Amino acid sequence: MTTATPRHSARLCRLDLWLNPVFDEIIGATPGITLSVLPATGDDARTLAGLKTAHAYHVSAAKDELPRQWFVNAELIAQCPDLVCVSSGGAGYDTIDVAACTAAGIAVVNQAGGNAESVAEHTYALLLAVQRRIVESHNRLRRDTGFSREDLMGHEIHGSVIGLVGIGKIGTCVARIAQGFGLRVIAHDPLLEAATIRSRGAEPVGLDELLAQSDIVSLHCPLDASTRGLIGAKAFAAMKPGAVFVSTARGGIHDEDALHDALRNGHLRGAGLDVWEQEPPERSAPLLALDNVVATFHTAGVTHEARRSVARSSATQLAAMLRGERPPQLVNPEVWPLAAKRIATLT
């Protein structure tokens, strides 16, 4: 049943981690929803008490910023019997146990596409910084004298083959931008038909073929059981000598030690990394000591525009679900019939 507003007062909670103000503006202007902003740290009893009565929960997607006790897992769900919908504050949902939510009849949404343009742009920022040795040049100009421009000679990307591991919303943006740089685009995505991959601007290939053909390998797949550790020592060894590796996906998909070895032994030319197993990585992390690594702190999607888009998407989807409307970015679509019935009986 779909109504203009929730049939009863729906209780929505979020933590006091930074969130673009548009989220509170949208929820505050939606009749029938009461928003509670709870402390992420400092008063666990208050936060748990709020979540125990919540119908909806907007949760940060940042696994190393969100305190573990507020992850949406079976333990928390067991204490929140009224919870019917959860929204991740990003395209990823590392802080949500989707299977546990499905078992409990809880609909989960993410904000896929909300930061796609920002992440795609950042992919090329990292790639160009590696290939044109921009960070090296900047640092040498600040600290050294007596070196020549040829000491910092880099490489064009024009005419190269870029291989995308995953071609969802972000990968599709990366493929579109690639055309302007004169890149040939190939992609591996086991979740998509070959025709769909072609429609998104890439030639479909198997993972082995992608690794063997690509001058640039760029990750755009989610982190899950099928992708954790996907790019390890064997995969790096299968890449072309002199290839560049870029990831704006999730830490844990690639093996950081194996990447370090492939860079140190000269098999790979360089790497652009926005994501890490631990975020931020320790300053002593071996990859950070290499001149041919350009590193950022999971900031690919952290722009004013993307953060506003993601916050708007989350608020809009939560409001829609609490009205009984099926949202566009369901992570567990199979749960919707049950979740909709639970939403219709909110008290």
UniProtKB/TrEMBL annotation:
Residues 125-300 form the D-isomer specific 2-hydroxyacid dehydrogenase NAD-binding domain. Its EC number is 1.1.1.81. InterPro entries: D-2-hydroxyacid_DH, D-isomer_2_OHA_DH_cat_dom, D-isomer_DH_CS, D-isomer_DH_NAD-bd, NAD(P)-bd_dom_sf. The keyword Secreted does not apply. PROSITE patterns: D_2_HYDROXYACID_DH_2. GO terms for molecular function: hydroxypyruvate reductase [NAD(P)H] activity; NAD binding. Keywords: NAD, Oxidoreductase, Pyruvate. Belongs to the D-isomer specific 2-hydroxyacid dehydrogenase family. This is Glyoxylate/hydroxypyruvate reductase B. The lineage of its organism: Bacteria, Pseudomonadati, Pseudomonadota, Betaproteobacteria, Burkholderiales.
